[in-house]
Amino acid sequence: MDSAAFRRRALLGVAEMYAADKAAMAAGIAGETLMEAAGRGVADAVRALGAPRPVAVLCGPGNNGGDGFVAARHLKQAGWPVRLALLGDPAALKGDARLNAERWDGGVEALSPAVLEGAAVVIDALFGAGLARDIDGVAWDTIAAIGERLCIAVDVPSGVHGDSGAVMGIAPMARTTVTFFRRKPGHVLLPGRVHCGEVRVIDIGIPDAVLDGIGPMQAANAQALWSAGFPWPRLDQHKYSRGHAVISGGAQMTGAARLAARAAQRAGAGMVSVAVPADNAVVYKVALEGAIVRGVRDTSGYAEVIGDPRVSACLVGPGNGVSPATREQALAALRTGKPVVLDADALTVFEDTHDLLFSSIIGPCLMTPHEGEFRRLFPVAGDKIARARQAAQLSGAVVLLKGADTVIAAPDGRAVVNENAPAELATAGAGDVLAGIATALAAQGMDMFDAACAAAWLHGAAAEAFGTGLIAEDLPDQLPSVLRALRATAK
Asked: How many CB atoms lie within 10 A of CB 32?
């Protein structure tokens, strides 16, 4: 993974952002300068809305409120009618927030819903990303009164926690959120992401060098992270050297493995085989013209198929059934030490024996659970990034925790949040396609963490390319155009 791209796309937790501010000030950049740039950036976002109109600025008792005072000053100087309200006593303000409150030459009202009367635009500068308790009292009442007014949030919408994206009691629905230096996990994790609207990152003068001392371990997914290692076909390759993926198929839900196989073909695997119950082989042969269908009678027959030295990755789980046979196939695949993707039933089947599963992982492994499957395997708590990270460290596998805010975590602590998945991906079979894409990339020699990140991004891009009316069967056929566009930008 490209480390420079990772830093550019880094998501800074609340403590990490505090550390970045502190490091910038230690390097000689005054906190007053940072706050002035932040507030001016918020005012610029408001001015971009068009002609001046009445603005209500809601300020809290901390530095977020200080940013609000700066924004109010700039807007008033630009001819915007500004009404400002403060939560708490002005005399209690400290540091740079107090300084900028003193520079404000307009009125300061006590916070209440009444300050919103007649306002066309609301600047939410009440609470920052590190809010530690649920909002209540007059702050709750005022936020609730924002309603559908056009809201510009400072750093995060008040009530959204910067690390988890959780809503602490209530949060406004912002049209735009203006944040500084780098985004936070709460900007991309649900439900916070829904409340943020468009997120604009403002350069307030913090140098990138401060990241040297922070070492962020989470980032937002983008092709820049993994495109340098993407396995594009070469003229000197043949079908086996381009990767031979073996996908395990079930007897009843045959569509799942067929979707995964078609996705693996479209994602570039030179050869795709499906290992299926011998009595059901004809179903797969009819549907998968370009794949090799291998009928197997038992685990030893499956082990023989994947033991072929030309096989370079295995997928177990989609439609396989929660059965001893699925467990044995998963363990047999893991024993090869080849890259293995475990999805769906190959995860659920280990609900009561997860220690056996984890101890059997000796090579590159990717698990792709949805929330229900994840909870059956991993007794961990915390926000979505923290849970995925703990699961990867417990299991020794890369863990892709699915959802509109899919999180991919590696055992070494790195985590990536995917944010290009449209709502249309909430359809049966979409996860099978994702597993097939990841398996194909791993079969072609891509690092498993990179393969998981690339698969999630390609999956989302394919869904975006198709749009409304999407079903899982549409996804594989969108991959060629997505890959062409990816290759064009990678040159």
From this structure: 15
Joined tokens for residue 252: 């009843």
Read off the amino acid at residue 192: G
Q: Give the separation between CA 185 and CA 418, rounded to whole angstroms.
A: 11
- Using CA atoms, how far apart are residues 313 and 398, in angstroms rounded to an integer? 15
CA dihedral 391, 392, 398, 402 (to 10 degrees): 30
Q: Is the pTM of this model over 0.85?
A: yes
Looking at residue 240, the DSSP 8-state letter turns out to be T
CA gap 15, 26 in Å, rounded? 16
Residue 456 sits at φ, ψ, to 5 deg, of -60, -40
Integer-rounded Cα radius of gyration of the chain: 26
Give the type of residue at 477. D
| 414/220 Cα distance (integer angstroms) | 11
Question: What is the band of 491 on the pLDDT scale with cuts at 50, 70, 90?
Answer: low
Sheet with 407-409, side-by-side order of all strands = 218-220, 415-417, 407-409, 398-401, 365-367, 340-342, 313-316, 244-248, 271-277, 292-296
Asked if residues 193 and 165 have their Cβ atoms less than 8 Å apart, the reply is yes
- Structural domains of the chain, ranges and CATH numbers in brackets: 3-217 (3.40.50.10260), 223-490 (3.40.1190.20)
User: Do 142 and 158 form a contact (C-beta atoms < 8 A)?
Assistant: no
Q: Is 362 in contact with 335 (CB distance < 8 Å)?
A: yes
Give the whole-angstrom CA distance, residue 382 versus residue 384: 7
The candidate with the shortest Cα–Cα distance to 284, out of 322, 319, 324, is 319
Two tokens, residue 179: 């944040």
Residues 432, 261: Cα–Cα separation, whole Å = 9
Q: Is the dihedral of CA 216, 219, 222, 223 positive or negative?
A: positive
* Cα(74)–Cα(191) distance, integer angstroms: 32
Compute the C-alpha angle 392/402/271, nearest 5°. 85
Q: What sections of 267-366 are H helices per DSSP?
A: 281-287, 299-307, 324-335, 345-348, 354-359
Q: What is the pLDDT of residues 137-188, one digit of tens each?
A: 999 999 999 999 999 999 999 999 999 999 999 999 999 999 999 999 999 9
Q: What is the pLDDT of residues 79-112, one digit of tens each?
A: 999 999 999 999 999 999 999 999 999 999 999 9
Alpha-carbon distances of 272 from 168, 197, 234, 292, 455, rounded to whole Å? 48, 41, 18, 6, 17
